[in-house]
Amino acid sequence: MPHVPQVLPHVLSSLALTAALLAAGSFATTPLAAEEPSQIAQSSDYFPDQIGTRWQYRGQISEGPVQVIDNKFFANTSSVTGTKKLNGVTVTVFHDTNPGNHGESDSYYRRDSVGMVYYGSDPGTPLEKQIVPYQIVRFPITIPSSFQQFNRNGLDFGSDMDRDGVNEKVDMVGTTRVVGRETITVPAGTYSNAVKVEARMTMEIHLSGGDKPARGTDVMTAWFAKGVGLVKYVERQELSASKEDRGMVTEITEELEEFTPAPAR
């Protein structure tokens, strides 16, 4: 289930953030007419989590320092594999073979009557572990609407950006906004009334050497179709330049190629 910005995991290995690229494949979105505030009664239908459900995505990633871009294509298969206990809470396990072109991972979610909560991933990052769990969507879905997911200060960034032997501290804020409904076309087909959600994360990294803070953003736009779930996401993450680094931009898109519902019971 690769639609959650997982605390910028790419940053901790490359000291940079990633960002989204509109993939060169065949997709299109058609906004519907502006709508009055409304609620979706069966909101959970947009986030299926039955064991055996499977999504196959194709993706494109473009990353590098400013004006030096490396384009790659990749595939990712996401599937619901089971449940497990985390700190006494039963969560659903989503296994991804290559989300964002970063190798295998398991992500943990809990869906209940009030929404979806993200409990982290494996392998995760020390930074991610400091802010989970947090809610990623609220039920019933209200269009339009927004809420703050988290606001944390003084976290251990887990990396030494200015190379003085001390990890940096970081302040992070996450918000989610339900934008509206659109008709969207991806390789798997055309989906009408897909719910469009924008998740935005901002970071201010305080360098222990006393230099000007580095700032980063992660903006993910995702579309969810009723009975299917995530059909596409576009993510853009950026890290400002510092005296030791020119900054980094990475852009990622994944689009649904094939959806397999859970076997009937």
Structural description of this entry:
It contains two helices and 15 strands. About 11% of the residues have low confidence. It is 4% helix and 57% strand. With 265 residues, it is mainly beta. It has one domain. The protein is globular and about 55 Å long. Strands 1, 3, 4, 5, 6, 7, 8, 10, 11, 12, 13, 14 and 15 form a 13-stranded antiparallel sheet that branches. Strands 2-9 form a two-stranded antiparallel ribbon. A hairpin with an 8-residue loop joins strand 5 and strand 6.
Features:
2 helices; 265 residues; two-stranded antiparallel sheet; 13-stranded antiparallel beta sheet; 15 strands; 4% helix; mainly beta; single chain
The total count of helices amounts to 2
**Helix percent band:** under 10%
The structural class is mainly beta
- What amount of the residues lies in strands? over 45%
Beta strands, count: 15
Oligomer: single chain
Largest sheet: 13 strands, antiparallel
Principal-axes geometry comes out as globular
Distance between the termini: 23 Å
Radius of gyration: 18 Å
Number of domains: 1
Mean pLDDT: 84
SSE topology string: HEEEEEEEHEEEEEEEE
Low-confidence stretches: 5-33
Fold topology:
Elements: H1 9-14, E1 28-31, E2 38-40, E3 54-64, E4 70-86, E5 89-96, E6 105-112, E7 115-122, H2 126-129, E8 134-138, E9 141-143, E10 145-156, E11 169-186, E12 189-206, E13 214-225, E14 229-239, E15 248-260
Could you write a compact summary of the structure shown?
The chain contains two helices and 15 strands. With 265 residues, it is mainly beta. The protein is globular, with a radius of gyration of 18 Å.
